[in-house]
C-alpha cells in the first residue's frame, strides 16, 4: 500500500515526465488497436470475399499436381500446372458420402482465352458480306455501308499521305512494302465503281490488302473459369449478373466479368471518359492537376479516328452540325471537330461527357462483343496447342461488394463442357467432329492424331504428310472448322456438365468453422479410395492474393515494432531522468534500510500505474475510433482496395482479444523501458543520501 | 564489548589517479548510551567516519565492527538490514521523502521492518511525533514544514525503529542557532529518556560543548577521543 501510495505520488510529482510516458503508452495503445482492427477487418473481408466468390472454404486438386494450386495465377502471371482429375462424378459421390460437413462441390478449371474481333474495316466488310448474302436486302442500307467502308479506306489513304510514318508499325511486314501501290489503287474512282459491279472482288481486296494496314490492337485476353455456371451462381453468394443473363442450365456459353467488359471490351474513348468521370467524382481529382487524367485526354485526342471511322458518312454530316453547335466552332472536318471536342477540361468535362453518350456513342461500336453475340474464343490446350470454339456471350457478372476491383482474378465464366474442349479434353461432339474432319482429310489413325493434338507433346514435324494434315485440322479448330458446328446451341444435362475432367473444385461447407478438420477428412478419404486429390484451404488456394493480408499484417507488425522500439527509448529516457532526479531520495531510502527490491518494486509500480491509466484511456479512445470508423467507414483509395475493403468503404470491426493483447503488450513494453532506469536506480548508493546539498 | 569498534581503519578516496586518504589508521570505541560528538574542521573526515559506522560505506583497510558484526565482511543485503534494525540516521539536509507526509515519513522504516505490527507502528509513530512536538503537523508534507520541523521529523524517523545508535551528520548545520539548540536539546532528552546512543558530527563549538565526549579529527586522524 505504501509503495502504491509512493508510486502514485511520485508520478504526480513528476507530472511532465509521467505525462510523456503516459501519452506514449496511450498513443501506442491506440495505434496498436487501430492497426490490428484494420488488418483484422481486411483479413476478414478478404476471407469472406474469396470464399464467397470463387475459392469456397476448401479447394481440391490433383495430388500429382506439379505446382501448387493458385487460382489467381502464379507470380509469372500464368496458370500453374495443377494437373487434372478425370472423374468428377466419382470424387463428388465419395466425398459427399464420406465427409458430412461438405455442402457443395463445384468443378472448375482456369485458363486464358483470346478473342480478336478485327479492326473497323474487318468488321464493316463482314457486315457487308452478310448483307450481300441476302438477295432481299434493302439496297439503301447496303449503300450506306459501302459509303462507310469507302470513308474508312479514304481515311487510311489520307493518313498515309499526311505522314507515311504513321504506318511504321508495319515496317517489317510485306503489307507495308505494298502499301503505296495498294493505297494508290483504292484512291482511284474506277476502283470504287467496281463496288457496284463486282462487290465481292472489292471486299476481298480490301480485306486482304487494306485491312492489315489499319493499326489493330483489338485483341482481347481474359482468364476464365470453366464451371457449371448455374451451380456457380447458386453456390457463391457474391456472384451477381450485371448485364444479360447467366449461361442457362445445360447450355454452352460465356459470361464476361463486368470489369473486363467495361475496361477492355468497351470502346477505348468511352472507357477513358468513364475513368476520368469516376476519378473526378470519387477521388476528387481534377484534369488541371492530375497527370494521369491529362494523359487520358491526350490519348483520346490522338485517337479521334477510332470514333469517326466507326460513323457512317451520313451520320457524320449530322454529327458535324451538332459538334459545331456544341463547340461553337467553325471547323468543317469531323477529325478537327472531334479533336477539339475531346480536348476536355474541368469546366466542360461533364457537359461533353453527356454529349458524348447522347450524340456520339449511339453511332459507335461501344462494345467489341455485344451481349448475345456468338464469337470465336481462342485458347490453348494444356499441351500448348491452339484451340477454338464459337460461344455465345450471355452477359456480364461481378462480385457484389468488390465490383470494381481488378483483384480476385477478373475471371470470366465458361461452361464446363467448353472449358474441357478448349483445354484439350475430348467431348463426344468434338470427337465426332474431328473424326469427320480426319476422314475428309484422309487421316486414318484416329487415336494417334488425337494423342498428338491433345495429350502428347510429340513433334508435329515427325511425319511430314501427317503434320500437314494436322495443321489443317488445327486450322479448322481455330474457327473456320467451327462454322460447321453450332457448338453454342448444344445442350447438356447437369450430370453431363459435371461429370468428366476437372482441374480443381471448390468445396463449400455446412460448418465453415471446421475447415482444418474437413481438409484432413478429405485427404484421408482420398487416400483410402485412391481419388488422387488433395485439399487446401481458401487461403492456400488463392496463392499470392491469399498471402496479401499476411504481408499487410507483417508490415503492420513491423511498423508497430519500430514505433514501439522508438517509443520505448523515449519512455526509457523519461523514466531515467525522473529516476536520477530522485537519486538522493533513493539513496536516503537505501540508507535507512530499504532493500534494492523495494526500490525496484517502487519503479515497477509507477510503470504499472501509468500503463494501467493511460493504457485504459488509449484503449477507450482506440475502441471509440474503431467503432466510429465502423459506422462511417474509410473510403477506398482506388479500385484495388475495394477488394480488401469489401466495398467502397472499410468499416472497422473490433476484436476484444486484441484489446487484451495490446494492453498486455503495452505494459510489457513499459516494463522493458523501466529496466535500464531501474538498473541505474539500483546502483544508487546509500552514500548519495549523505551528499551535502540542498 | 563496545557497541561500535573501529580498529586501525583507513579510508582512501580515489580522484582519478590521485588517492586521497580520508581516514588514517583510526581506532575508536563507542559504548551504549553515549552522547558523543565528532568534531573537526571541514575535510577532517567526520562524515567519512560516520559513513563507515553507519554501514553505508566500507573501510579500505582495518575493521569496523557494528553490533558485533564486521561490516567489511557482510554482504550488501545484510548491511542494509543492519542499518534498518540497528542504526538511525539524521542528515544535515533532513532527507525526508518528499511525497510522504509527516506520519508516513516516520512510519516508512517501520514498514520496511517485517515484524512490526500495524498497531505497534501506529503507536510508535504517534509516540515519536509527540516526542518531537509535531502532533499538529501529522498530515503535513515536508515542503509545508520549516527546517527545524523537518529535522524533528527526521529525528522521529531515526528513532522509530528503536535503533541502538543514532548517527547525525551535522544535524544543525542548516538550522539557525536557536532551532539548532532546540534539536540538540531534543537529542539529549531522548538520549536520556530512550537510552539511545547518539553520535553526531559538528564543527559548531557551542554544540561541541554539550556533548559528553568529543572525538576530534584532524586530517583524517583522531587527535582527541
Structure description:
The complex is a heterodimer of chains A (694) and B (225). Chain A has helices spanning 2-13, 15-55, 88-98, 120-133, 139-162, 174-186, 189-197, 199-210, 229-235, 258-265, 268-283, 291-302, 305-308, 313-327, 334-342, 349-360, 416-422, 428-441, 446-455, 464-480, 494-498, 515-529, 538-541, 544-581, 583-591, 596-632, 639-645, 656-682, and strands at 58-62, 102-115, 220-227, 239-244, 254-257, 374-380, 386-399, 412-415, 504-509, 533-537, 634-635, 649-650. Chain A is of the alpha+beta class and 694 residues long. Among the domains of chain A are: 2-48 and 546-685, no CATH class; 118-217, no CATH class. A 6-stranded mixed beta barrel of chain A has the order 2-3-8-5-7-6, surrounded by 5 helices. A two-stranded antiparallel ribbon of chain A has the order 11-12. In chain A, strand 6 and strand 7 form a beta hairpin. Chain A is elongated, with a radius of gyration of 35 Å. Chain A starts with a helix and ends in a 12-residue tail after the last helix. Chain B is of the alpha/beta class and 225 residues long. Chain B has one domain (4-224): P-loop containing nucleotide triphosphate hydrolases (Rossmann fold). Chain B is built from 7 helices and 10 strands. Chain B has helices at residues 46-53, 76-86, 102-112, 118-131, 147-160, 177-193, 205-208; strands at 4-15, 18-30, 35-39, 61-66, 69-70, 87-90, 165-169, 197-202, 213-218, 221-224. In chain B, the strands form 2 sheets. Chain B has a 6-stranded mixed β-sheet with strand order 6-7-8-3-9-10, with helices on both faces. In chain B, strands 2-1-4-5 form a 4-stranded antiparallel β-sheet. The radius of gyration of chain B is 17 Å and the shape is globular. The two termini of chain B are 17 Å apart. The model of chain B has no long low-confidence stretch (mean pLDDT 89). Classes of the chains: A alpha+beta (694), B alpha/beta (225). Chains A and B meet through helix 1 and helix 25 of A and helix 1, helix 2 and helix 3 of B.
